[in-house]
Amino acid sequence: MPIAWPPLSSLIIIPAVGALGCCAPFFSKKMDPNGKLSRLWSIGIAILTLVVLAALARGATIAPGSVLALEEARSWIPSLGISYHLELDGLSFAFCLLTAIISLAVIAWSAKPQSAGAGWYSLLLLGEALVMGAFLATDLVLFYVFFEAMLLPVLGAMALWGGPKRLNAALKFLVYTMAGSALMFLSILYLGWLGNSSAPGVVDAFSFEITNLASKRLLNNSQEMILGIAFLLAFAIKTPIVPFHGWLPDTYREAPHGVAAFTAALLGKVGIYAILRFMWPLFPTFMVEAGPYIAALGAVSVVFGALVAMAQRDIRSLLAYSSISHLGFCVLGLASLSSMAMTGSIFLAFSHGIITAALFLTFGMIIDRQGVRDFDSLGGLAKVVPVSAFFLMVFSVAAVALPLTSSFVGEFLILMGSWKAFPQWTSLALIGVVLGAVYTLTAYLKTMFGGMRASTPALGRDIRGCDAMILTALAAIVVALGVFPGRLLDTISSAVPMQAAGSEVADNNLGQGFVR
Amino acid sequence: MNDSRLALVVLAPLIGAVLTYILGKSSQKISGVIASAAVIVSFLCVGSLWAELPTAGSFGVTLSSWLSFGGISLPLELYFDKLSAVMCLVVTGIGALIHIYSIGYMAEDESRPRFFSYLNLFIAAMLVLVLGKSLPTIFIGWEGVGLCSYLLIGFWYTNPEFASAGRKAFVMNRIGDVGFIVAMAVLYHSCGSLDITVLGKPEILARIPAELGFIAGIALFVAATGKSAQLPLFTWLPDAMAGPTPVSALIHAATMVTAGVYLMARMHGVVELDSAVPAVILWTALATSAIAAIIAMSQNDIKKVLAYSTVSQLGFMFIAVGVGAYGFALFHVVTHAFFKACLFLSAGSVIHGCHHEQDMRRMGGLAKSMPLTCFAYGVSTIAIAGIPPFSGYFSKHGILDAIPLTGNSYLQPWLGVIGLIATGITVLTAFYMFRSFILTFMGEYRGHEHPHEAPMVMTAPVLMLAVLAVVGGAFLSPIFLPYLTGPLPKVAHHAATHPGILGYILGSLPALVGIAAAFWLFLISPAAKEFFRKVFLPVGKLSEGKFFVDEIYEISVLTPLQKVSNVSGRIIDQSFFLGGGEALGKISRALGELTARVTTGQVGTYVLFMFCAAALFVYFFLPVR
Q: What percentage of chain A carries pLDDT values higher than 70?
């Protein structure tokens, strides 16, 4: 449904303006020495974004039986056929909602790098604007612009306030993702060129619009394969999938806690989102034929990520590898030709975003408090910081996908759905279900349980005030979605079949998977 | 019939759990009362529903549409029929008694509110397990009780060993849960539904292909082995004794560990799809039961004796499952809940009275100082040994009598062996249980404390359980099995339980042998003990070493897993994936430096390169060779 105002751009413009606003003089170090004003300003902006998103979605679905589909199209560079085309459907909505929630949580979280002032909030808001853009854009070039640009605020924050090896980590992150997206960019150009050459005599037939490109069916099988691999590589690095995860441990170790939470919760999800949004419509044959390999990569990521997570002594490295493991389930589901599993994948991605952000923030606070980050020098903290211990238990339990938490819904749907197509890879991924319990409970055991270390210092305090509210809200989301996931599942699944429609796979009503 | 009382059955303990947790330290005194009241409310609801069951047939309530979307329908529904009624009455009835007992047992613990909160949460989860209308709903309870078990085993978490025991229990249960998920996947894709009422229909089950039928049945049994501590996943249960004793009584004896038996009975149609599955169940159960009984003979920790005894008795229930006598399996679940809960709570009183002493070598003669506890422990010991008219006799001998009547062609050639081993286990059970009774309550006191009787709030529930342990079996025996013939398959041999006086005497012979042996060796003639120890040295070593199952795991699973994990993390990941990235970086940097060195800015060099490039271009692309 095309709408006049407020257009979808407001979801990008509001945080972007907020980011610019942070540079205003009254947020400077002199006028606002504690960064309290800029924090309030940014929280306001983040809340406004969330409210606007909710209002847009509500407005679009208020009629009974209506499906969420909002559009905003303007020409941008007409001579090259590049348009400014945004779309909000169920798929985008899930991720935009996640972006708005996580941005608000990270911005409102009281702990930030010590030297950071308004710049910290500015970069986070900018990050929110760009990630939001990536989840809304349906023009490939526009998507690519957001896809690349969202690295900048993250890299900036990392280089400014990261750990001792931050520059090395930032460089590695940059090189990895650039290497992936360079190939994707070439493929995008090639797609546009193909679209043009297929219509001789028509001037300005360049188009990078996804539905346009998908409906033309420009590619033969081998072209689909080559371009598909190029796209897949970019998204595999971003997600990341084993073995393209080289950037991840350093990034999550060196980034400030808030940025690590932001990156883990949102940046990786762009890869998951893009596989469904762009790869299924553009390369349907490739996705069906490469399905077993992609599913295998997903299942291997699940198990390998879990095995490596078990070997970690550093809390944040463990969280990093556990992310690989959890997102492996999403990849498995996306490859599995079942709308049940695909919906589950998106749901799990949403859930993982919330849970991993909460874990990064809470463990981050404990790391700052104790001044150490490896398990062997922690222990017995449940007595000292009972509130943190409670929330960590809730989110750990959610991370291992216990029923009535949101992760279970996603993981269960994925496992049920993908069993039909790939019982072997699903069985492999099931090992990850057990190993996930091992490393998650071990992390909890070593930090919270056992005797208290004599050397345990107490540099800070337990979680309270605003932070406790944030964690309560996130925990409430996790449980609410675990008990009543229907609304979000309906929203997501309304968009899923359209994405996979190009592969001529029809969903039968039992949800037993697509039948070709 | 739809009834919201059914929702209250689950919600009452759930509200209790939230309330006691939120009130926290401010509710030190009343937390136990709140928690007990919540369970009693639940019990009363179950009772009133049960009373109306004959007219209503069954009750149901939908709590959430849950996983329903698109064309998929997986709501969160509860379902109350005769089978769930039996389980619910046990869970809430015995649960309430154990809650009341805990008020006394935990009186000095500062974290009581947390304890009662977890305990209430457990009751709620266990009720979801037995009331779930679909396998995913049952799975909520299934994982939920696992979580509560983990939290309660590690309740005294400052002791790292206790906390590790909790983790071990959770992980071993998770291995079983994988079986549950596989079974759900197979059944969902074959039958198109996970509703237990649908999966109970033969025409629906007929849709399952033969090879998948075996997988589904075995996967369900794997799930049951995790929860009900059968081979090879039983070692978590003895370690679980780290938890407070009421927890051991409630979770690790009376209720949670019997969930596997309930699952088998509920899904008996799937279990029996391939008759190889019951055969696997029977042999596994027989081995588990025998091994656990042998281990129990040499334990000195009173709770460990009871723990291995529980494993052994659970094995007995699975023997019944294996031969298709589900009714007797559930009957044994009920009687076992009576006498084992009583035994554990009595043991708790003993531990409480001896100031946290659990080693029977430092007990003895407690009959004088704790007469009520001694009485309760004594009658429960007779009940578990299998002497009529005490409760254990009826369920146990029901199972023994059912063995020869099985129709399973895989088992029929072995009926003699199976019967012999099962009878042998009965002898051992009587022996090790009386050993523990004699060591604890008879002879002279060998400890250094001043043992005292437990307070009323503890002895009253124990005595009520003792009464049930005495008369429960005889009372239920004539009505229990006919009651369950609706939800469970009708087996002809259910009626054959009136053997007459001679039958009773013959039936109690194995137990009498065990009891006599225990009295002879541990009270009358200690010299003979030494003789037998020498004769049975190899068995004794196996028993004392707990058949080295933990060690076998250590060697065959844990160490290799650790190695794989380390190799994955330190070698494959560090040097290959991460190192590979670094190497690529180094190569590109070297290339960059090379370029930088070549691009010196001198025109001469550039010209030279230009000519070389042109020459190469000509060489490759001009058709002239």
A: 91
Provide the 3-class DSSP secondary structure of residue B40.
helix
What lies within 8 Å, CB to CB, of B87 at 6+ separation is B130, B262, B333
Claim to verify: residue B420 and residue B506 sit in the same structural domain: yes
Q: What percentage of chain A exceeds 90 in pLDDT?
A: 43
The reported pLDDT for the residue numbered A506 is: 39
- What's the sign of the alpha-carbon dihedral B277, B278, B280, B285? positive
Q: Quick check: B252 and B310 in contact, CB under 8 A?
A: yes
Phi/psi region, residue B434 (left: phi>0; alpha: psi -120 to 50; beta: rest), is: alpha
pLDDT, averaged across chain A: 85
Establish whether the linkage from the previous residue to B489 is cis, with ω within 30° of 0.
no
Strand A82-89 to strand A69-77: parallel, antiparallel, or no bridges (unpaired)? antiparallel
ipTM of the complex as predicted: 0.90
Judge contact between A153 and A124, C-beta under 8 A: yes
Question: A302, A406, A416, A512: which to substitute to probe chain B, counting the most B Cβ within 10 Å?
Answer: A416
Helical ranges in B404-558 per DSSP H: 415-441, 456-483, 500-519, 526-535, 537-544, 549-553
Rounded distance between C-alpha atoms, residue B151 and residue B146, angstroms = 9
Burial of residue A368, with CB atoms counted within 10 A of its CB: 0-12 exposed, 13-18 middle, 19 or more buried: middle
Q: Can you give the pTM of this predicted structure?
A: 0.91
Question: How close does chain B come to A13, measured CA to CA in Å?
Answer: 34
Sequential DSSP letters for A317-385: HHHHHHHHHHHHHHHHHHTSS-HHHHHHHHHHHHHHHHHHHHHHHHHHHHHHHHS--BGGG---HHHH-
Q: With contact defined as beta carbons under 8 Å apart, do B377 and B302 qualify?
A: no
Helix, strand, coil % (nearest 5) of chain A?
70, 5, 25
Query: What's the domain count of chain B?
Result: 3
Tracing tokens 């200690």 back to the chain, one arrives at B526
Q: What is the pLDDT of residue B498?
A: 61
Interface test with B, best of A308, A340, A444 (most B CBs within 10 A): A308
d(CA B494, CA B482): 8
Instruction: Name the residue among A279, A286, A271 with its Cα closest to residue A213.
Output: A279
Comparing CB atoms, the residue among B136, B170, B566 nearest residue A437 is B170
- Coil/strand/helix, residue B425: helix
Decide the pairing of beta strands A69-77 and B59-64: unpaired
Q: What is the spatial distance between Cα B312 and Cα B308, in angstroms, rounded to a whole number?
A: 6
Closest Cβ opposite residue B564 in set A307, A339, A438: A307
Say if B195 falls within a structural domain.
Answer: no
In a domain, B82, yes or no: yes
Question: Do the Cβ atoms of A449 and B157 come within 8 Å?
Answer: yes
Domain stop point among B476, B509, B541: B541
Q: Is residue B226 part of a domain?
A: no
Amino acid identity for residue A489 in this structure: L
Domain that holds residue B432: 275-541
Which whole-number Å values give the CA distances from B222 to B174, B182, B281, B552, in the listed order? 10, 10, 10, 19
Q: How do the domains of chain A map onto residue ranges?
A: 293-511
Residues B369 and B386 in one domain: yes
Neighbours of B531 (CB within 10 A): 11
Contact A93, A100 (CB under 8 A): no
Report the alpha-carbon distance of residue B76 to residue B63 in Å, rounded: 6
pLDDT tens figures, A270-326: 999 999 999 888 888 888 888 899 999 999 999 999 999 988 888 888 999 999 999
Would residue B374 count as lying in a domain?
yes
Mean pLDDT of B520-530: 80
Assess whether B512 and B468 both reside in one domain.
yes
Under the banding of pLDDT at 50, 70 and 90, the label for residue A509 is very low
Residue of chain B whose alpha carbon sits nearest to that of A426: B182
B498 and B570 assigned to the same domain: no
